[in-house]
Specification:
Elements (H helix, E strand, L loop, with lengths): L7 H20 L2 H18 L9 H18 L1 H4 L29 H18 L4 H12 L4 H8 L3 H22 E5 L5 E5 L1
Antiparallel strand pairs: 1-2
Length: 195
């Protein structure tokens, strides 16, 4: 696999949105996540010629992203409160019936607002998770990585990953039960009412 040639443009196109979403969920700051994502892909581009294929390409990229985020978490500027700013919405409303990227039917305005509120509610609680559990949880639940890929990304054993995901779910359930009431809306989707 080390003889395989990789095209950075196609890697960037495929993985940039995933890595940006992952970093945004990890640090809860869109502008910071965008900066980190750029750093990640600079490192990917530089390291691509030496990538030996011992891990899958996606695992290797997520590992670079996780290490880059961890470096930022440890930085003095981040710890002084840089994390407190939000960049707001970055996508404009699509006026067509279908999403141009996914082909999925767009939600009504009311359903979209409810979905965004539910996502925001869950994200607020995910951000309260213990840092040891948060990365494993986000990689599993949001990014869809397998436990073995998460283990390789975070430098843990598969058993440790399973434990961290289980504990993250338990912790999330506990803090959500204390902070909000979740019930289905008219469309059968979950809706969050803060207590």
């Amino acid at each position: 696999m080390s003889n395989q040639t990789y095209n950075f443009q196609s890697i960037y196109k495929e993985f940039y949105p995933k890595i940006l979403r992952y970093l945004d969920r990890l640090i809860d700051n869109r502008e910071e996540a965008e900066d980190l994502a750029q750093e990640v892909f600079i490192k990917v581009n530089k390291g691509l010629e030496n990538f030996e294929g011992k891990a899958s390409l996606s695992t290797w990229i997520y590992k670079i992203a996780t290490n880059t985020a961890n470096d930022r978490f440890r930085s003095t500027s981040f710890q002084k409160g840089q994390k407190q700013t939000f960049s707001g919405e970055f996508l404009e409303d699509n006026k067509e019936d279908k999403n141009v990227w996914t082909g999925e039917k767009n939600l009504t305005v009311d359903n979209q607002i409810e979905k965004e509120q539910m996502d925001d509610c869950i994200d607020r609680y995910v951000n309260r998770l213990n840092e040891n559990y948060k990365a494993a949880f986000v990689l599993s639940e949001y990014e869809g990585l397998k436990n073995s890929e998460i283990a390789e990304t975070l430098g843990l054993t598969v058993d440790t990953v399973k434990i961290r995901i289980h504990r993250a779910r338990s912790q999330l359930k506990g803090i959500m039960e204390k902070g909000c009431e979740i019930s289905p809306n008219d469309a059968g989707e979950l809706h969050c009412d803060e207590k």
